[in-house]
Amino acid sequence: MTSETPSTRQIGSNNENFTIGSYNGFEIMIRDSDGFVNATKLVQQINEREHTTKELRNITRSPVFVEYKQYLEKISPFNLNGPLCYLLPTAFMNDVRGTYVH
């Protein structure tokens, strides 16, 4: 088994900073202001690696996800001070846009 040394870099858009970390062959984008992860970019990388065509929008609209999200927001086990996930507006550059999850 080979190990990869994690690396990070930062980019900015609309006065927001994002850290991109490389781990296990994936680039994971984190919004610095709240620690949310860009799930859209992660699913795209998984699709490329696994030769699949999963779409995050289909997952987040599924009844199972909607019910689970409502449950977590109701009991708030993670002490969330906001939503479980959100979509960055189009005012942000393409490199950072997507659905961010906690």
Automatic annotation (TrEMBL):
Residues 17-102 form the KilA-N domain. It comes from the Eukaryota. Transmembrane segments: none annotated. It comes from Streblomastix strix. It holds the Pfam family KilA-N. InterPro entries: KilA/APSES_HTH, KilA_N. Signal peptide: none annotated. This is KilA-N domain-containing protein. PROSITE patterns: KILA_N.
